[in-house]
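Incident log, structure service

09:12 report received: a user says their structure output differs between two submissions of the same chain.
09:20 pulled the input from the user's history:
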Amino acid sequence: MRAVFLASAVAAATVISGATLTVAGPAAAQTLRVASFTPEGAVGVQNVMIPWMEAVEAELGDRVELIPFWGGSLGPNPFEQFNLVRDGVIDIAWVLAGYTPGQFPQLQVTELPFTARSGEEASVTAWRLYETGMIGGTEDVHVLTVWTPDITAIHLNEPIQSLEELAGKSLRTSGGTQALFVETLGAAPQTLGSVEANEAQGRGTIDGQLQGWTGMNTFGGFAVSNAAYNGPFGAAPFLLLMNKSAWESLPADVQDVMTKHAGEPLARRGGRAYDEITRGIIERQTADGYELVTASEEDVARYLESFGAVHDTWVAATENGAEILATYMQLIEDYRAGN
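09:34 re-ran on a clean worker, output below:
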C-alpha cells in the first residue's frame, strides 16, 4: 500500500493546474550541417573549415554538433552554394564569390591583378575590408570569415614569357573580375568550374586557366596543363557563410565562441596554409618537368602600365568601386607595414 501511495503521490505531483511537469535533462546539442562542394581533402576544408569546427566543438562540448557533408553531398553545384546557405539547405558552407555572379562585386576586388602578393596578405586584408562594412551582398546570411587561396597563376598548355603572349587565347576564369583582366589582355574569358575547366582544356577548347596552384592540385588540373606563368594576378575571395536563421537561433555565448575562432585569425590561418602548401606543390611540379616562368618586378611594373586599365574598368563597373579599391590598397600597405 505504501508503494502504491507513493506512486500515486508522484503522479499527482506532476500535474499542476492541468500542466504536466517533466524533469529537465541535459539540453540537446545544437546540430548544424557544415558542407562543401569540394572533397574532404581540399585545402579549404582541411585548413579552414575542419580546424574551425574542431575549435568550436572543443570549447562548447556537447552544446553543439557540427556535422560535415563534403564532396557536394548536400548540393554539388559550386555555383549554387550561396543559395543553399541562404535557403537553409545547408547551415554553414564554403562559398566562392566568383561563382555567385553579382552577389559580392566589391569583395572581388581581391581578384584584381597587381595588388596582393600572397594568400595570407590577401586573406587578412579581405577580412579587414569586410569589417569596414563596405562589402555588400551579405545581408541575407551571416559571415564567419573571408579568406583567399594562394595567388592566381596562369596555367597553360604551352609556356609563355610574358602576358602579351596571351592575346587571342581563350582562358578559364572563375568570375567577372578575372574576366575583366583576361579581356584587358586581349584574350577571351570563359567562366567555368574547375572540373569543367580541366575538361575544356583537355579538349583544347580553352588554352589555359586562371587558377591557384592548390586548386589545380585539388581538381586535377595538372593532368591537362604543362606550364604556368606566376605573378601577382589576384586571388579569388572565399567566404565561410552561415544561414541567418540558424545563426540567430543560437545562444549569444555560442555565437561568441564561433566568432572568436573565425574572423581574422581564421582568415590568416587559411591564407597562410594555402601559401605553404603552394610552395610544396610548385616544388613537386617543377621537379616533374612542369615549366614555370615568374614575372620579374620590372615585368610587373610594365604590366601595370600596359594592363592597369583593368582597375579603372572594375571601378567603373562596381558600386563604390573607387573607394573599395583605394581602401583595399591601403589595407595591403598597412599589412606590409606590420599592422
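09:41 both user submissions now match this output. Likely a transient worker issue. Closing.
09:42 reviewer note: The chain has 13 helices and 13 strands. The longest helix spans residues 263-287.
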